[in-house]
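Reopening: structure tokens for the zinc ion complex, inputs below.
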Amino acid sequence: MALDDPLLQGFRRFQQQYFSASNPVYASLCQGQHPVTLVIACCDSRVHPPALMGSQPGEMFVIRNVANLVPPYSPHNEHASVAAALEFAVLSLNVGRIIVMGHSGCGGIQALLRRSTPRDSALTRWLAIAEPARELTYRHHAGASAALQARQCEQAAILVSLNNLLGYPWLADRVKTGQLMLNGWYFDMHEGALWGLDAESHRFVPLVCPLERADC
Ligand SMILES: [Zn+2]
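Re-run output (same inputs, fresh job):
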């Protein structure tokens, strides 16, 4: 194994940061995890939630999948991977907040819009979860530019996932009683900005503006 493997070098830096005698972060984390937030994000290598939000190990429970989708609730455990992680995060870890985090330039959403994946592929079946977002986009933005359609569909897919979350009965119960908060966030990597879904207007509004536009 090459000693200059950049991933091993990366682990050594991590080791220095979190296992040093002066800052033994994992000494307590080894006793158990108590994350307060669950983030559901895309697999995209440019969308790394703990890095984007400055979270330390142990603070954030993360589910990542293509296009940050939440499948509709199914008692037959279809798409059991996401359902199992949701169950664990909500019922065992008692997270108090779930953030569905979409992003600009999402390849999954692009494939959904263009129907560019093979018909019988797992990817096609998975992306079908966001079909309502595709329909909404083409119904309301038929003549818009491809870039605007992509943005609309990326944001509509976040709404689809938030709506699907409320179909999980044990999760909806916690939202109703105020034990659990749901947020929809959108990372615009082109502008370096963060947008959030406004619960009243159902529109995305700036949470963190681009660096050069602090007044937005
Ligand atoms: Zn993506």
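The beta strands are 37-42, 60-65, 97-103, 181-188, 193-197, 204-208. The chain has nine helices and six strands. Marking as resolved unless the reporter disagrees.
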